[in-house]
Amino acid sequence: MEIYCLIAAIRAHLNSLSEKKHVLQFFELQEASQCLSLDVENDIEKMLQKIKEYFTTHNQIPGKILLKNFGTLYCSEAKGEGRFYGKVAVITGAAQGLGEAFARKLSKDGAMVVLADRNITGIQKLEEEISNSSKCLSVQTDVTNSKSVEELVEKSVKQFGGIDIFISNAGIVYAGGLDVAKEEEFDRINEVNYKGYFHCAKACSKIMKMQTRYDQNTYADIIQINSKSGLRGSKANFMYSASKFAGIGLTQSFALELAPYRIKVNSICPGNYYEGNLWSDPKNGLFIQYLNAGKVPEAKNVEDVKRHYLSQVPMGKGCSPDDIYRAIVYAIEQTGETGQAIPVTGGQTMLS
Ligand SMILES: NC(=O)c1ccc[n+]([C@@H]2O[C@H](COP(=O)([O-])OP(=O)(O)OC[C@H]3O[C@@H](n4cnc5c(N)ncnc54)[C@H](O)[C@@H]3O)[C@@H](O)[C@H]2O)c1
Questions:
Q1: Is the shortest distance between the CB of 320 and ligand 1 below 6 Å?
Q2: Which of 145, 149, 229, 295 is deepest in the core (most CB within 10 A)?
Q3: Was domain 88-271+313-344 assigned CATH 3.40.50.720?
Q4: Cα–Cα distance for residue pair 234/257, rounded to 1 Å
């Protein structure tokens, strides 16, 4: 068994033994003395039995566990408080925009957060800002690269002991109709928005399966940040829309496959977040792209484009990170639903 799966199983086992939640930190090839020693060649059940015996005898978890020939696990009680106390959450695309907002909120709500993005400067800056840095880790990641995503998952487990929530949020958009769209853009958008989500679900579900197996009281969550364009076609924006539709196919299929392991898989489909860079960046934002592409024929400036889009929302406002986060909280806290695409669109997209 891979060492990372074993670590996740040990944390889950410790969580199942006591009321408290635990965090484990693994140091490769570091041989600590005076600690519980496990032979990783052994059967996993035997190893967990040894941990249980230690717990029963000492009435506390072992502070250190030597995984012979691999390294040492430092085990402690998770710190902090909040609705996500003791949970480990990984967020891709966390360097800016929605991902950054979700990371801040999850951390405030007590989770240990792993910030993943191609933009290392952005996530490191955020890591510094998130008040308690012992609860935050940045990992430079390219979601289009399976190796890079596997490393993200391994580093998360090494730092915290597992992954309870994985938010597949990294995404890109290239607007444009059939006359202007380029094949390279079509491929790239699918690499990030569609295949990237596959890489993430594949790598994190392996860890989550161990956790739900060895802690029968727990669930895990994979949440994909999709879009209203994943529910309804988008004029002159077909590359993005199709990549997001495909993501919903993955969500439904992953949900069917992972439900027996108590891993929920849901997509959240936000409407437009106009204040974020994606729309408002003065150079490459969608307002300026749509203005230049003539997507809103009567528009003379960015304000006209904005008015046009706002007029399509029954609630008369754009989507906010706060509202999307409420949907994330719902997806995690409930245990009766999986495989859904949850709209947060101010009524712009209604499910039938
Ligand atoms: N902003 C909106 O109006 C809106 C609406 C609906 C859905 N969404 C979705 O929400 C998600 C986040 O959007 P946003 O507005 O915050 O975007 P953003 O452009 O502000 O941020 C996206 C982040 O993803 C990172 N990223 C891009 N490619 C990556 C890769 N290959 N590997 C790792 N990281 C990568 C970028 O570096 C960036 O930090 C996207 O999936 C987007 O499709 C956004």
A1: no
A2: 149
A3: yes
A4: 30
